[in-house]
Design goal:
Elements: E1 2-4, H1 11-24, H2 30-33, H3 37-42, H4 44-55, E2 67-74, E3 77-85, H5 90-95, E4 99-103, H6 112-126, E5 131-137, H7 141-149, E6 153-158, E7 167-173
Length: about 170
């Protein structure tokens, strides 16, 4: 099991994962909902190139900061992804933190969440981050356990709006 930079090598299993996410239709994987399977099949390299560019701060969507995406690969199959934001804006400080991760639906509850965060922490340190903020919705008990299992120290919970669950904020010193 390893974290790798996005690569065309994992095209088929990544596309299969996107199909799983899109069937699930949850807020946790909302960024996968916008991906078009036909475009991925036709030009997967363009998608990979975009992710790599974003790590250098190029072609970022509005409001985004440079972030490096890694894929968790097990037995040459895409399992999940982790994004490490290189720095925090006020909005990210409040609700998203440095690290966001997700595991494809068919691989959840198998220890991959804990492992992806464990592997991401040294990558964050390589980027010069010494104290990592990680957040999750208070209703996401699996993510809460993953963060705490990786040494997350609870700071507080934040109320963002009446139609969203409170955001739990944790810090991990690297």
């Amino acid at each position: 099991m390893q974290l790798v930079l996005p690569s065309i090598r994992y095209k088929e299993s990544f596309i299969a994962a996107v199909e799983e996410y899109q069937k699930e239709i949850s807020n946790i994987t909302v960024d996968f909902l916008s991906l078009k399977i036909s475009e991925l099949k036709n030009d997967f390299q363009a998608y990979v190139d975009q992710l790599i560019c974003e790590s250098f701060g190029k072609n970022l969507p509005p409001g985004y900061v440079p972030h490096t995406t890694y894929w968790l690969i097990d037995k040459n199959k895409y399992i999940g992804r982790v994004d490490i934001r290189h720095w925090l804006t006020q909005q990210l400080l409040l609700e998203a933190g440095h690290i966001g991760y997700n595991i494809r639906p068919s691989k959840r509850r198998q220890g991959y969440g804990k492992k992806i965060l464990e592997l991401a922490l040294p990558k964050a340190k390589e980027l010069g981050i010494t104290k990592v903020l990680i957040t999750c919705d208070e209703t996401n008990l699996a993510s809460k356990k993953v963060i705490e299992a990786n040494g997350g120290n609870f700071e507080n919970s934040v109320f963002l709006s009446s139609n969203r669950p409170r955001k739990l904020r944790y810090w991990i010193v690297l």
